Structure formats: C-alpha cells, structure tokens
Amino acid sequence: MRWDELFADLEGQLEQELDAERLDLAAEEERLRLGRLTIRDRLMAMSRGGAVVRVALIDGATVRLRIDTAGRDWIAGSPEAGAGSVLVPLAAVAAVLPEGDQLARGLSIRSPEPGAELAGRLGLGFVLRDLCRRRAGVDVVTGDGIHHGTIDRVGRDHLDLAEHEEGSAPRGGAVRRVRIIPFGRITCVRL
After folding, report:
1. Which of 96, 93, 46 is closest to 73 using CA atoms?
2. Residue 51 sits in the same domain as residue 103
3. Three-class HEC string of the chain
4. Section 134-150 average pLDDT
5. Number of domains in the chain
6. Residue 33's pLDDT band (boundaries 50, 70, 90)?
7. In Å, what is the CA distance from 67 to each residue of 23, 76, 86, 97, 178?
8. Angle at 117 between CA 34 and CA 50, to 5 degrees
9. Looking at the structure, do residues 115 and 166 belong to the same domain, yes or no?
10. What is the separation, in whole angstroms, between the first and last Cα of the chain?
C-alpha cells in the first residue's frame, strides 16, 4: 500500500507541474498575441457593429468617429455629430478613450478583419491622392488651424493645398495661395 500512496503522490505532483506549465505557456502566448496588436487593429475591433469610438488628437481635440475603414497609417469614418467624413492619420492620435465594452473588444482580436489585408497596406498618401483626383473640397486641420481648399498635388510626405473660399472652384483668382503641408503636421482631413 505504501507504494500505491507514493505513486499517487508522484502522479499528483506531475499533474500540478504540467498544469502550471500549460498555464505559463498560455500566458506567454497571450503576451505574444497582445504584443502583435496595432492601434489600428484595436480601433477597428472597438468600432465593430458601427460603434462610435472616441479618439483624442495631438492638437487637444477629441473626435467621436464611426470608423468605416482603416489603412496602414490612417483611419476614416463619419463623425458622430455632423455630416461628412473624417480622415485621421494614426500619427495624430494622442489617445483612444474606450467606453463600455470597447476595451475588451479591442483586446479580443484573434485574426485580421475580413478585407483588411488590402486596406491595411494602403498608406495616407494613397487616400490623399484619391481626394486630389476627385478635386474634393476639404478642410485640412493642422496644429496652426483649419485650412480649406482643394488638394492639388500629393508628394511622398506632403501635399499642396490650393486654398480658396468654401463652395468656390479652385480656378484662377479664387485660389488665395498654395499651402504645402507635411503629412506629419496633419491632425485630420474633413470632407
């Protein structure tokens, strides 16, 4: 009987050690998964189902967005209050302020969103070039104010904004000046 007790005791110790090893392995896998998350991934997860996400920008403003899409270095969506669309470079995000269960949803990502692979590779310059082609009137918000106009050209790290009165076409005398704005200074672009 003593042998039975000894083997039972050894078996119990081995099970405890295996359980502890499994828990350590699961915790390490979770740390690795969390270490691969990007702010873009978390924002998209938080906005699932049309949820509004509150984002603080580097200029001190806070926007509440219903995020429609996101690229490699930007997010875009419609503001909770008001019409139009807003494009926000991720470099202009000072903080994300989750509400309700958004924090948990932002951490529960297991795999990329469907269709996110293509959109996730598109950079800010690509989206700005599209706005340039469309000749859409935009408000470019920077640290020194709001600048209305039409995007004339988009370089690798900057854009040329032809400033004009809202509602007028960017032709001839309607253009007051051209402002060259580095991408790093853009807080958001409103359409």
Report:
1. 93
2. yes
3. CHHHHHHHHHHHHHHHHHHHHHHHHHHHHHHHHHHHCCHHHHHHHHCHHHCCEEEEECCCCEEEEEEEEECCCEEEEEECCCCCCEEEEHHHEEEECCCCCHHHHHHCCCCCCCCHHHHHHCCHHHHHHHHHHHCCEEEEEECCEEEEEEEEEECCCEEEEEECCCCCCCCHHHCCEEEEEEHHHEEEEEC
4. 94
5. 3
6. low
7. 36, 6, 9, 14, 30
8. 75
9. no
10. 82
Nearest-angstrom CA–CA distance, 80 and 91: 21
Token pair 């419609």 is found at 78
Structure tokens at 85: 């669309």
The 10s digit of each residue's pLDDT in 76-99 is: 999 987 778 999 999 999 999 999
Q: Look at residue 30 and tell me whether its pLDDT is greater than 70.
A: no
Residue with tokens 């005398």: 173
Amino acid at 20: A
Range of the domain at 54: 37-122
> Could you report the per-residue pLDDT of 52-85, keeping only the tens digit for each?
999 999 999 999 999 999 999 999 999 987 778 9
What pLDDT is recorded for position 111? Answer: 58
| Residues 47, 105 within the same domain | yes
- Are 176 and 164 in contact by the 8 Å Cβ rule? The answer is yes
